[in-house]
Write a structure and sequence with these properties.
By secondary structure, this protein is an alpha/beta fold. Helices cover about 35% and strands about 15% of the residues. The protein is built from eleven helices and eight strands. The two termini are about 25 Å apart.
């Protein structure tokens, strides 16, 4: 399939629903991502947050950082609580408010997967967002099933041996109405996908690559650069699943090598050329499988 034409530029609203003064780490990709998401979703939104970095970033009463209603829930129950909230609103006659479960990779890929699977299978009318910083960053940087192979974490001091769980395909196979990837370095693509998800009814899943300076090991002023390197190298495809097929929403330049993207992070700095090439090849396989123009990249 040919790549879609570039999306026409749209004005980004000046309204801010994510307030300054929050306690996120400097350069936190999850904080920037929430700010962008709320610009697309608007005030008629309720956010459900299971245990994660965002349990802290949201702040404590009366200094919440969000300008929309927020429900904190246990690690395992993000999707279940969001489904219950949606049912409650519908019982009250409210069919307009958008319900969003906003979870880290631990609350999505691992501890929260049971509820996520159930909500997707039941076609619950909600948006489930995974901001993926590729480890349990709020509790010390332990590996999750979203952690890429070869990554040094607190619980994989020799590097993680397993591949990253293919959650995108799992969500598509569950019959999700809409599945998409996004990252903050491409705000127009990001906003367009959130607006599209908001306009739909049914179960929608958005995966955000959310760089973490402390967990990944890069300077805190390079978060946008890290996101861009991930996309331009082909390590992170910007795609969407709609109408039974994957479509590429942005075709990168491939002028950045996956190896250079990996070496810009201390969590991969302990590996030599051979291991880096293996990790890059796995990323290449992911690209070829999800995108509509296989490339067969070299790392």
């Amino acid at each position: 399939m040919e790549q879609k034409k570039p999306r026409s530029p749209e004005m980004i609203t000046q309204e801010e629903l994510f307030h300054p003064g929050h306690p996120a780490c400097p350069g936190c990709g999850a904080a920037i991502s929430m700010r962008l998401a709320l610009k697309a979703l608007g005030k008629k939104t309720m956010i459900v947050i299971p245990a994660s970095c965002w349990s802290i970033i949201a702040g404590a009463h009366p200094t919440f950082s969000l300008g929309v209603p927020l429900l904190h829930v246990p690690f395992i129950s993000g999707a279940a609580a969001a489904a219950g909230l949606k049912a409650s609103l519908e019982a009250l006659g409210d069919k307009e408010t958008t319900i969003v479960a906003w979870a880290g990779d631990g609350g999505t890929y691992d501890i929260g997967f049971q509820g996520l699977s159930g909500a997707a299978e039941r076609k619950t009318d909600m948006i489930f967002v995974c901001y993926d910083n590729e480890a349990y960053m709020n509790t010390g940087g332990q590996r999750s099933s979203a952690t890429p192979p070869g990554t040094y974490t607190a619980t994989t001091p020799q590097g993680k041996g397993e591949d990253k769980k293919d959650l995108l395909s799992i969500m598509a196979d569950h019959g999700a109405l809409y599945v998409a990837t996004a990252t903050l370095a491409y705000p127009q693509d990001f906003l367009t996908k959130f607006k599209k998800a908001k306009a739909k009814k049914g179960f929608r899943f958005i995966h955000i690559l959310s760089p973490c300076p402390t967990g990944w090991g890069y300077p805190e002023d390079k978060t946008v650069t890290m996101s861009r390197m991930a996309v331009e190298s082909g390590a992170y495809p910007l795609v969407e699943w709609e109408g039974g097929e994957w479509n590429t929403t942005y075709r990168p330049s491939f002028q950045i090598k996956i190896k250079d993207y990996l070496l810009s992070q201390s969590r991969f700095a302990h590996w030599g050329e051979e291991k880096l090439a293996q990790i890059a090849q796995r990323a290449t396989h992911q690209w070829d499988r999800l995108t509509d123009h296989p490339k067969g990249l070299k790392g």
